[in-house]
Specification:
7 strands; single chain; mainly beta; two-stranded antiparallel ribbon; three-stranded antiparallel sheet
């Protein structure tokens, strides 16, 4: 499932940031950093269960209380692209399971 939400605690933005998983600066649109000119976030989560209008999800990477704007179904045939380049992320994703957020975007 894809969540689209408002990054409601972001008060300013920067066009250049030191993103999560890297200490080098990159342009904001080459990152997933929250301090964006338009504070809209997107996350792919796992739907575990549904009980009426309540959904149980896993792999959530947003703060409690974040306003949800919309949710969409994740469809691998539409959403999983093949043969893509990931730029500066290449070589850094093996550390993602152990990486923890720091306070650089608060």
């Amino acid at each position: 499932m894809i969540l689209i939400y408002h990054l409601h605690l972001v008060r300013d933005f920067s066009l250049s940031v030191r993103p999560f998983l890297d200490n080098d600066e990159h342009g904001i649109f080459a990152t997933r950093a929250p301090k964006r000119p338009n504070p809209i976030g997107l996350s792919v989560v796992r739907l575990v269960a549904r009980d009426g209008a309540s959904l149980e999800i896993e792999d959530v990477d947003i703060l409690d209380g974040t306003p949800l704007l919309d949710l969409k179904p994740y469809v691998p045939q539409f959403d999983a692209a093949e043969n893509v380049r990931i730029g500066w992320f290449d070589g850094r994703l093996e550390h993602i399971a152990k990486a923890r957020s720091d306070e650089r975007f608060v």
